[in-house]
Design a protein that fits this description.
single chain; alpha/beta; five-stranded mixed β-sheet
Length: about 290
């Protein structure tokens, strides 16, 4: 093995690849900040799973940059090796050349680790996006008529995935996206969502906090006490224990059952519904 040829070719390829990576990342960051506001922003609102769509786009761009960098490195390494780049290191001691190779190997391992993490994160975000879209589409069918659905509603305590507003009440729907196993079921235990067959427990404290904060903000807006009913959606899972004092558990097939989870105190005046829809419309306008 010609260590001088390998070191020379790898050095040329790494230097060029790093330059390519810096330019690509800089351009990517610039394109996100300059001119990122959509046209007709006042008329565009969040779609279902909007934040997951945005995150998936970001991860897809990063993945494309890393894969392109790997291709650039391979092409330039082969080209430099064929053009006898070993002359760059002619006369250097062998230990220095091996040290250079070790450094390049570590750099390659780090780059592969970053690429692997990006691919896995993209895979997970894609699943969460699909789960939220599935629930969002079902809600659109349920709410057809006098109710409206809002997506990715921000509160000071977090984001509520979906909010349904209508004369019969207000529902805050949060999606717990976890890959369903065969014959797997989910059930509520207090403020925890438990999956069968030791597939884990998801605390609902953050969901409860964001829903409670939304309820508080709506009550302040309308000037009276209003309840926001908390619905937990677990797409793909069979539902066991379905209801608790604070939450209703559904999947994408049973979500229509939430329409029956109400009482007369949940009803809203038409004026209150309109005021609330105006407020949520302002919150959910797409700014970037």
């Amino acid at each position: 093995m010609n260590i001088e040829a390998i070191s020379g070719a790898a050095t040329v390829a790494v230097a060029s690849t790093v330059l390519f990576l810096v330019i690509a990342k800089s351009w990517n960051a610039l394109s996100r900040t300059v001119g990122s506001t959509p046209s007709f922003a006042d008329s565009i609102m969040h779609e279902a799973a909007q934040r997951f769509r945005d995150e998936l786009d970001r991860l897809s761009r990063s993945q494309a940059i890393y894969l392109s960098s790997a291709l650039v490195f391979i092409v330039l390494f082969l080209a430099a090796y064929a053009l006898r780049a070993q002359e760059l290191f002619a006369g250097y001691p062998a230990w220095q050349l091996w040290l250079q190779v070790a450094f390049l190997a570590l750099a390659a391992i780090f780059a592969g680790w970053r690429l692997g993490r990006t691919i896995l994160a993209r895979h997970e975000v894609k699943f969460m996006r699909d789960a939220n879209i599935a629930i969002g589409h079902q809600l659109q069918q349920i709410a057809a008529g006098s109710s409206r659905v809002f997506h990715d509603v921000a509160t000071s305590a977090g984001v509520v995935d979906h909010v349904v507003v209508g004369p019969r009440g207000i529902y805050g729907i949060n999606v717990v996206a976890r890959r369903a196993r065969k014959r797997g079921s989910a059930f509520l235990q207090g403020n925890e969502l438990t999956f069968s067959q030791r597939y884990g427990v998801v605390p609902l404290a953050n969901i409860a906090a964001s829903t409670a904060r939304l309820e508080k903000e709506i009550s302040r807006l309308l000037g009276c006490k209003v309840r926001v009913r908390s619905v937990i959606a677990a797409p793909g899972w069979d539902i066991g224990e379905q209801a608790s004092e604070n939450h209703l558990l559904v999947n994408e097939r049973t979500i229509s059952m939430m329409r029956g989870w109400r009482d007369s105190s949940d009803h809203l005046m038409n004026e209150d519904v309109q005021s609330l829809c105006d407020e949520l419309t302002a919150r959910c306008r797409r700014q970037s």
